[in-house]
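input
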Amino acid sequence: MNKHRSSFEAYYSIPKLLLYLSVCSVIIIACFLLVFQGLSDRVAPLSIAGVSGLTFFGSLGVLVIFRLFNRREQIRIDSKGVMVREIWSSIIPHESIEAVGLDKNFLWLCLLQPENYPARSLYRRLFGNLASGLPKGCHYIVDRQYDCSIDEILDALEHFRPKTKHQLEVDRLIAASGSD
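output
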């Protein structure tokens, strides 16, 4: 990340979304074949599986198509705070973020008072923490759909987020122990 920029922005990645759309299209075609095969052979479970796949992957394909045309910034990190459009409808001030961490394939942010910053989507409010295994008040960010990596997001957070009193104290102790 360029340290002289006034903010970090991430957008949906067109190449990644096109890849997801092409995978969805292949699966949708396979589901159509399942439906037609099930109907012609009068095998209800095959048709039901095909319709279920069509419903799920068709919905996913429509979501990807909408995201292809959404050119607004999806993640913004600056001196004011953090905005992740998928999660929150407002900027979360840095002072309201208790912790930031990395776990496997996603970055997580834990908020001090999560009730002040409810997640936008019903899915995130009801199931977001169950899916990730994070405690209440923590939210995960996956980089698979954005034009940046988790490391770039972490770098931006490190650059723009002021250090907490605890972090400053740890830095002071490390510096003091190094001078001995």
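quick obs: The chain has two domains: 13-68, 75-165.
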